[in-house]
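Our platform keeps sequence and structure together, in a single record for each protein. This encoding replaces a full spatial description with a residue-level series of whole-number codes. We quote a single record here, exactly as it is kept in our systems:
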Amino acid sequence: MTSCDTTAMLAYDDALRQLTGGISPIGKKTDLELRAALGAVLAETIESRIDVPGCAMSSMDGYAVNTADLSATGTTTLPLSQRIPAGTAAADLRPGSAARIFTGAPVPAGADAVIMQEQVLAADGSISFEVHPQSGSNIRPAGNDIKSGTRILTEGCRLRAQDIGLAASVGLKTLSVFEPIRVGIFFTGDELVEPGEQLAAHQIYDSNRYTLHGLLTAMGCEVVDLGLVGDSLDETKAAMQLAATRADLVVTSGGVSVGEEDYVRIAIEQLGELRLWRIGIKPGKPLAYGQIDATAFMGLPGNPVSVFATFCLFVCPVIRILQGRGWQKPLPLPLIADFDWPKPDSRREFLRARLTSADDGQTRVQVYPNQDSGVLTSTVWADGFVEIAENQTVAAGDVVNYLPFAQFFG
């Protein structure tokens, strides 16, 4: 059992390096049928074993011809030798003839172009037309989408609907994926009351439980919810020990500051190892990270906005690595500030912000007027953070770094 140095705040970038540098993927795999694989993390890189399409196909309804049979000038008239709907095999094109063909049907050997039906006059078993298509017109060649041996999906991607459709297009029935990681959560605070219960004046409803549950579920985690825990060291330790035995990661909110009723930090020091605590960011300074046996632990602050912000900034990277997805720091978008921020802070600040369109057509970014860490409304109003460096001020018209929420979860 060891304890980190708690005398000074750790810089944001240093904390991020420590967190992500000490985490490895869980790595447990399972096979899922395609319809059950949405949102799962792919456990192997996939190469196609077939061409898609497997043969040359018509890209529209029309007539398959050999351009060598066409008149160099004027009208060409050709007899029809076969009819080729999609899903049927085609005979070789008889020289000097045309074939009626439909979208997605195989182009017969001997044909090298398809003429749109709108450009053709059909009558008495023959067609006449004046167009002079180039060889290859309106034909999708074999392998036009995917060539055999091409990598189509990469290990570590979280499967979207289009990824699953792509796997189906090369004939796969199942996919090897990483099993969902289990995240244990519990919440401390005698002032917390479950939604739906009677609320006294000195109490608040527990919003953090539902915010975290939703965030974890959206990231594809299996949530082990241990609910509310009383403000005592013994209850906190018991909940923490139980969560560590049932989960790959434990995330809590509250109890990590320096108050006499803040027991989470003390419990992690007594049960395992506290590796970092107190980070130089706003909101979210009192964030704890450690380990109980083989289970990683993250103790988030109790304020609702701090929970949301620290989840985005620190929990998301840890989860992505545990899931086998890997993680890269989100790339900020430089945008023009539509606000003033005249009071610098010694900590790095993450302001709740959203995009707006100015009268000049430029995209700008504005911040919520009340940045207090208890104002959960700001996270609903916003679609990202503006990152303000330590001791920095901002005036309207300055360029600032904007981080969309979607970059953290995507």
